[in-house]
Amino acid sequence: MPVTYNIDTQERVLRTQGTGMVTLADVVDHFRDLERDPNCAGSLDVLLDLSGTNSVPETREIQAIPFEIARIRDKVHLGACAIVATKDALFGMLRMFAVMAERFFRAIQVFRSRAEAEAWLVSERQQSSQVAGGSVSEGNRPGGKN
Description:
The chain has four helices and five strands. By secondary structure, the chain is of the alpha/beta class. The chain has one domain: 2-Layer Sandwich (Transcription Regulator spoIIAA), CATH 3.30.750. Strands 1-2-3-4-5 form a five-stranded mixed β-sheet, sandwiched between helices. A hairpin with a 4-residue loop joins strand 1 and strand 2. Helix 1 packs parallel to helix 2 and helix 2 packs across helix 3.
């Protein structure tokens, strides 16, 4: 299966992994699975690891994915989204995706390594909890945008 996921209900993180040739149909199926998953509710951060994929989506496919995200919006609030892409072409396409999908996330960023992505998610979670607690550091704004 090209797209797999698990939801860490303790940490509130949706970890999705793409491997091999991932098609738009695979992505659509993934969002349908999320719609049916009872653990995909409330608020979740996202780690999308595409370092194992061999495919690069076309622009029209990248443009279609925000519509799939919108379908699950009533069920789950997506916080920070860290995307891992090690191949140059995929990295570039996913940066374009991040711009198109940013309205669905508190913050979204593309990384070249899983370690960087995980570290960023931890820092975003800490920043979000400070904002929720009412102590926003100088220079930071709610919503993850500086």
